[in-house]
Predict the 3D structure of the following.
Amino acid sequence: MLMKLIDLSHEIEDNMPVYPGDTKTNLVQVKYLSADQYNNHRLDINMHSGTHIDSPMHLTDCKQYISELPLESFIADGCVLDVRNQAIIKLKAEYDALIRENSIVLLYTGYDMYYGTKEYYENHPCVDIELCKLLVEKNIKMLGMDIPSPDRYPFEIHKLLFKNKIYVMENLTNLEQLLNVDRFEVIAFPLKIRADSSITRVVARIMQG
């Protein structure tokens, strides 16, 4: 049995793209081997920069930090839905069979090609409420997507998911590599951080052979 790992995360770098209105990322080298006998870097980053997980504290009165959520929430069998060319990502009949309970569902919009541009933040697709209700019925663990948000103000999709303890992964990439994969696992552990959300390294693990 062979294992293949696909990185679904954007790289963290200095002055990387951020959601409009958020503070910019500052990543600098503060020590140099030639002068200080070691290298070191300092990172100042908003938890919603790049690839990250939103937890209920982000938009509800939940008092639980993301570091306090069960680890089991962040690893599960994955399912990718090809939802390209849809301004509103609507429920389809076939999704009932495709989406398994307690899984992590990924939405492939193809919008990661616009990552960091005005188009990416202002014109990204949004999830329809009926699809969201199916995800709740299936008791999935997380909803991930290659866009900056599943909705816009007043963030009803976020809130419905959070109410049902479903977490949201935003700004994924490379989802096209999963389109023809029969079965894979998503591994997406947040930092152990006392915050509402966390930057995250998201990986899909495919077993082959």
Notes: The first helix runs from residue 33 to 36. The helical segments are 33-36, 95-98, 118-122, 129-137, 156-163.
